Amino acid sequence: MSLVRKNPKYLTSLSQIPELDEQERNRLYPVAQKFAFRTNEYYQSLINWDDPDDPIRRLVMPDVQELEDFGAWDASEEASYTVVQGLEHKYRDTALLLVNNICGAYCRFCFRKRLFTQENDETINDVSEAIKYIRVHPEINNIVLSGGDPLVMSTGKLERIIEQLAGIDHVRIIRIGSKMLSFNPFRVTGDPSLIDMVKRYRTPEKRIYLMVHFNHPRELTAESIHAIFLMQEAGAITFNQSPILRGVNDRPEVIAELFGRLSSLGVVPYYLFICRPTAGNKSFIVPVEEAISILDQARAKLSGVACSARLCMSHKSGKIEVVGKYGNQVILRRHRLPNSRQSEVLMFPCDPTAYWLDDYFAAQETTRLSALASA
Question: How far does Cα 256 stand from its chain's mean position?
Answer without folding.
Answer: 19
